[in-house]
Specification:
Strand content of chain B: 5-15%
Largest sheet of chain B: 5 strands, mixed
Number of strands of chain A: 29
CATH superfamily of the largest domain in chain B: Beta-grasp domain
Number of domains of chain B: 2
Distance between the termini of chain A: 54 Å
Helix content of chain B: 40-55%
Structural class of chain A: alpha+beta
Shape of chain A: globular
Oligomer: heterodimer
CATH topology of the largest domain in chain B: Ubiquitin-like (UB roll)
CATH architecture of the largest domain in chain B: Roll
CATH architecture of the largest domain in chain A: 2-Layer Sandwich
Radius of gyration of chain A: 28 Å
CATH superfamily of the largest domain in chain A: Aldehyde oxidase/xanthine dehydrogenase, molybdopterin binding domain
Number of strands of chain B: 5
Number of helices of chain A: 17
Chain lengths: 705, 154
């Protein structure tokens, strides 16, 4: 078996090409880098996020996970901006799991929001220290010096010293705690369409994703798991599996039985021949129907009130009352790269190469599972082929560590697509009871929303979760619509189906129901859906602003009458400190929905990289439309029925609408981006279908039959 | 275990593998050509597309016996020319997000453009429609195709 020498740490050397702003990135293993750098360079590291060495390397450490959203580019932009270095001279290093970075959990659209301050401060602190160091050498006041492109320059005589020449002097200085950050109008990097640092290697096929990692002496592993939710392995029969040439060992782990072999294919073949004896819980009879019935039963109750004002029950003369029930199914994340992990357990220590969104959790879960302390677990974070929340759960890392420990061999565990689909952590289903009324003048009078759904927090972490803390209320409370009488309530239900966070979490469910029902109210009020929404929003609202802009950009009202069979729908979303509006245009042919055009407006405050924001909006729309038009995981006899992309379809190239993204230029604090584009998709497309056909879609995925 | 000699990226490579082993796993595990990706294993998604005598094929459903004697090109082979118009366009338009499906996207398009210069736009689009992307980069892929087709016509 051929193996390549593993790169212990991943480095990207970013080299600028002339013209066009293109970047050629290549991986430089640490050994080479040090060799290139000369012996024992002196290092100036005033922060955990950056280091400058005496050989001229400026290294920026990325502590969040790159899964396509662009943090490996965007986070270093924040440091580089304040540090005053040339973007194409920096080296970007992926951090291992370490609590010194604070949260490394790449979820909740937090990477830029939470690090906007700390990373700029890290860059500015180093800059100030380098300026002071140069001023000390020149024996002038720091005020007479400034930093530019990796040099400190003496204003008085134009003398200059490079950062690498200042490493030693700067390292002697105390770290200042009150550095002044740059004025946004002086930004050279933030706000620019900086190219992704990871593009060239990825398109050349050079990039090592988790699934591509190879370490010396490594075996390939596959796991056979018990088929039913909540069932566990009692024993297994190895004799058929061991008849496969190249199968080296078969061991029991907590989730099933693992085969290790000298290739992935032989591991899969060996695994297929294993027979397990499982202890099943009482999950055999679980079906989607059963879960639907449970939601339906609870929908008849009042639920715990999260928020209320006025009186939604008092009869008002002349009011037009509406009510509707909305429902959405389980969904699977299905990233293109199936779950996988490389693990090496040796001398009481575990080392992992994990495509994880949650490295600190992987570290602690592995430590717990194999009975060693966290200090003895190293988690290297690899690049990953999509995450969407699936890689926040550390099950694959635990399995890999257990297999390595049980076999005493370094291993790479690879899940098949079928396993990825059947042993997922699904977006929970939900039901929504909406009630409302409009008065004789067409104004919204009442709005009430009762969400019924399994709670991720309650099922996985806190069975005694108090109703005030229900995660299912995400996206339901604090609506900006000024409606005099509201009631927002929730009820959780239990489920044995594993559930977890899915891109936009409960904002994939609640805004679908809310923004669809607001449309129903607009129709009942005989008012244009944009006018109806606009009339309920305060004039200084950022949400109203994105609504106005989307109306203008989409041509809403201008070409008011679309041809027969076509329709246009709008939806708004506020969340993750950002504001967004989408208008979808659809054509209906028979029972077929084609989304022709989507106009997106996002106000996410200061935009760090417009190209990444646009890419996230485009991607979120494909993700959101996939969920609206196609996505459904169904449960039968205690397990998931779907198994691959033929029965869990995702949107394709030819189905893609034309997407236009507009962002609002302002100086509000940075908001989240990754999840903001998903929530308005389902309601906007359903509202467009209503406009085209008069048919109101209240259940996802959309079926026009 | 039988020995097979394959021609991969114009080099002869001998591998010892079981009969019926899919080309995908030979590339990835035996030859460490990991640019060809595993995703569905059933020929549905296109992440594993390679060229067999210039034609785009899914390596996850090609057994080794099917490809002995053929000329196999992987993304690494295509990337021997890093200034290939497809790569340049992909970088310029910043097409990719996570990047996992992109070798399959690029190999599919490269086969269409190189082997079938008379391909209609519909034929190109229909080929691209068979390669899945969960990040949703289709709009940019389409723009890249637009640009490459236009340049090809000049």
């Amino acid at each position: 078996m051929k193996t390549s020498k593993i790169k212990r740490r991943e480095f990207i050397k970013v080299v600028g090409l002339t013209g066009g702003g293109l970047f050629l990135a290549s991986y430089v293993p640490i050994q080479n880098l040090l060799a290139y750098s000369g012996d024992d360079p002196k290092i100036f590291a005033p922060s955990i996020f950056l280091k400058i060495d005496s050989n001229g390397f400026v290294t920026i450490i990325v502590h969040r996970s790159e899964m396509g959203q662009g943090v490996k580019t965007a986070l270093p932009m924040l440091v580089a901006e304040e540090l005053e270095v040339e973007w194409d001279k920096i080296v970007i290093e992926q951090a291992d799991a370490d609590t010194k970075y604070g949260s490394q959990t790449t979820g909740g659209s937090t990477s830029i929001r939470r690090n906007w301050g700390p990373l700029r401060v890290a860059g500015a602190t180093a800059r100030v220290m380098l300026i002071t160091a140069a001023a000390n050498i020149w024996k002038v006041s720091p005020e007479n010096c400034f930093a530019e492109n990796g040099f400190v320059i003496n204003k008085l005589n134009k003398e200059k010293l490079s950062y690498s020449e200042l490493v030693e002097e700067a390292s002697k200085l105390p770290v200042p705690t009150d550095v002044k950050l740059k004025d946004p109008k002086d930004y050279q990097i933030i706000g620019k369409r900086i190219h992704r640092v990871d593009t060239p290697d990825k398109i050349y096929g050079k990039t090592k994703f988790g699934i591509d990692v190879v370490i010396p002496g490594m075996y390939y592993a596959a796991v056979k798991r018990c088929p039913l939710f909540g069932s566990s392995i009692r024993t297994f029969d190895v004799k058929n599996a061991e008849s496969i040439p190249g199968v080296h060992d078969v061991v029991q782990i907590s989730s099933g039985a693992a085969v290790i072999a000298d290739s992935t294919w032989r591991a899969f073949k060996g695994r297929d021949l294993l027979t397990l004896a499982c202890v099943s819980g009482d999950t055999t009879n679980i079906t989607s129907e059963l879960i639907h019935n449970e939601l339906l039963k609870k929908s008849k109750t009042e639920g715990f009130e999260f928020e209320g004002r006025g009186d939604v029950n008092k009869i008002v003369e002349g009011e037009k009352l509406l009510d509707a029930v909305y429902e959405v199914p389980f969904l699977a994340h299905a990233p293109m790269e199936p779950m996988n992990c490389v693990a090496k357990f040796e001398n009481g220590k575990a080392e992992l190469w994990a495509p994880t969104q949650n490295p600190q959790n992987a570290r602690s879960e592995v430590a717990k599972a194999i009975g060693i302390s966290e200090d003895n677990v190293t988690v290297h974070v690899t690049l990953m082929g999509g995450g969407f929340g699936r890689r926040l759960v550390s099950d694959f890392a635990v399995e890999a560590a257990e297999i390595s420990k049980a076999t005493g061999k370094p291993i790479k565990l690879t899940w098949t697509r079928e396993e990825d689909m059947k042993y997922g952590w699904y977006r929970p289903p939900s039901m929504h009871v909406l009630k409302g009324s409009v008065d004789t003048e067409g104004k919204a009078l009442k709005f009430s929303h009762h969400v019924i759904a399994p709670s991720i927090i309650q099922m996985r972490f806190a069975p005694d979760l108090s109703p005030e803390e229900y995660d299912i209320k995400e996206g339901t409370v604090g609506l900006e619509y000024q409606i005099p009488n509201i009631r927002i309530a929730g009820t959780t239900v239990k489920t044995d189906v594993p559930i977890s966070w899915f891109r936009s979490v409960y904002n994939t469910q609640n805004p679908f129901a809310i923004e669809s029902f607001i449309d129903e109210m607009a129709f009942a009020a005989h008012t244009d859906p944009i006018e109806f929404r606009s009339s309920m929003l305060p004039d200084d609202s950022r949400l109203k602003n994105v609504l106005n802009v989307v109306a203008e950009k989409s041509g809403w009202g201008v070409g008011k009458i679309l041809p027969k069979g076509r329709g246009r729908g709008v939806a708004l979303f506020k969340g993750y400190d950002s504001y967004s509006a989408q208008v979808h245009e659809v054509t209906i042919t028979g029972n077929k929905v084609k989304v022709d055009r989507v106009v997106v407006v996002i106000d996410c405050g200061i935009v760090v990289n417009p190209d990444l924001v646009e890419a996230q909006m485009e991607g979120a729309i494909v993700f959101g439309l996939t969920a609206a038009l196609k996505g459904e995981i169904t449960i039968k006899n205690g397990s998931v029925e779907q198994s691959n992309f033929d029965d869990y379809e995702i949107m394709t190239y030819n189905e893609m609408p034309e997407i236009e993204v507009h962002y609002i230029k302002n100086t509000f604090p940075v908001g989240g981006v990754g999840e903001v584009g998903v929530p308005p998709c389902a309601p906007a497309v359903c509202n467009a279908i209503f406009a085209a056909t008069g048919k109101r879609i209240r259940k996802l995925p959309i079926r026009l039959t | 275990m039988p020995k097979y000699t394959l021609t991969i990226n114009q080099k002869k490579q001998t591998v010892d593998v079981d009969e019926g082993t899919p080309l995908l796993w030979i590339l990835r595990d035996n030859l460490n050509l990991t640019g060809t990706k595993y995703s569905c294993g059933e020929g549905i998604c296109g992440s594993c597309v390679v060229h067999i005598d210039g034609k785009a094929e899914r390596s996850c459903i090609l057994n080794i016996e099917d490809v002995v004697g053929n000329s196999i090109t992987t993304i690494e082979g295509l990337a021997e020319k890093p200034d290939h118009p497809i790569f340049k366009t992909w970088i310029e338009l910043e097409v990719m997000q996570c990047g996992y499906c992109q070798p399959g996207q690029i190999m599919t398009l490269a086969a269409m453009l190189q082997q079938n210069p008379k391909a209609t736009r519909k034929e190109i689009d229909d080929a691209m429609n068979e390669v899945l992307c969960r990040c949703g980069t289709y709009q940019r892929i389409r723009k890249a195709v637009d640009k490459l087709v236009e340049e090809g016509q000049q």
